[in-house]
Amino acid sequence: MAKKEFKFYPCDEINSIVELAERSKRLYGDSVAYIYKEKRQRVEKTYNDLVADSKKLAQMLMRKNLKKGHIALVGGSSYQYIVSYYAAMYAGLVIVPLDKELNFDDIYEQIEKADADFFLYDKTYKDYAELVKEKTDGAMGMFCINDPVEYDGEDLPFPEVQPDKLSTIIFTSGTTGKGKGVMLTQRNIARNVMAGGAHARVYHESDVSLSVLPMNHAYECLGNLFLMVYFGVPVCISSGLRYIAKELQEYKPTMLFAVPLLPQMLIDKVWTTAKKEGKDKKLKLGIKICNIAKKFGVDLTDKILGEVKAAFGGRLRLVVAGGAPVSQMLVESCKDLGIMVLTGYGLSECSPLLAFNFDYLQKADSVGRVVPGCEMKVVDGELWARGVSVSTGYYNDPENTGENFIDGWFKTGDMGYIDEDDFVFLTGRKKNLIILGNGKNVAPEGIEDDIHKAISYVSEVVVLGVDDKLCAAVYIDEESGATEQQLREDIAKFNKGMPVYKQITNIYVSQEPFPRTTTKKIVRRKVEEFVASKK
Q: Do 140 and 100 share a structural domain?
């Protein structure tokens, strides 16, 4: 059977981050690029500002005559952070964005791994700068990105952009061990921007994005540092999670790049509020009416559910969800409120996007169609990828590079399949696969998803193999009032609908949420330690 032809939206070709910035300056110049708060005052920066400020910092960096030219960067989400990234690209240097949530020892280990010879930091991390200075006996140059940029003399000529030269080292989150330094070029990232833009329409004239994720993450970089700049869409930089409800009202975004946890929290809050106010039945009826109307091509969402949508600012139309599995239940819950959830799939090694759903077509439970410029295949159940956005390996790490990169293909470590239309479906992580004594291979993620669907008060669940049997570590939603005894009874009912080898034999209840990475993925090795302590 011939593959279906799908419409990709046309995108201008770009081959570097510098080209991206210059294109946006040319097309959008005086339009607002970034909005943020400084001393409680609203600040707006245009695309002209972004390029000028980036070039100014680049000039300062170029005067440092760095031997390696690897710039470590640590800080919270800010306009200055973004300028630092673009400045390194203009200066022809290598940026190493570090995870601010790590402790200093881990951060310094990554600084050393990446051969960084300059340290950029924001004022919040002045203590880290002092420790770096101490560790290097003052040999490493450093600069606080909140300070005024000053340099003497005339501007130096900017180096010619080399799109295929190493430009970024991004450390993986390391859910099972130490992170690896992914090597990316400007072309890797620029072409991934084009790939993302080919799947969904974004509107310079009307869209507004709210940036809520840490900017060191490849996913947030793609979305709000590059893709929105490509489309000329203003990005409002959040001041932190505790301000999001207020910022949704103030900025009234139309778009949100988020891990699934955030939209799920917002949806849960809508229903919790509706129940407290006795309006949940009315809400259910309103959703039912809207869904019937949609079948006849009539959208009544704003009219009937306007009060509910106001909780999201009133204009939110699109949530791009990634970084963790997205349940179909969440997709449908947002759709009921007139908010489209587009799921995608990617890894830092792929800049990061590998697959993405279209805004005009989504397949249930799929993470999307393989993006232009990349191809994927399945080898022994594992998804492999190659293409213009895929890294060539890990920095100074031949062992892991040789293990994960084979003849131009990157072994993703994810199990799954690809249908006849090139849509990708995930079934689990290869390293999480449980091999039982009877020869059965069990992907725990599928069982975890089934438990979530079957038992509403299970907030978090991790399925593990212990003593050749399946066990479940569970954290119960505190507001549900459910008990451990109730959980055991419901798991027993759940087991009746499962094959014998997929049944849960032991349950371990945690009194607190499981540890997560900064990308909000549960750290399974920590859960394994918790279970071992309870045996």
A: yes
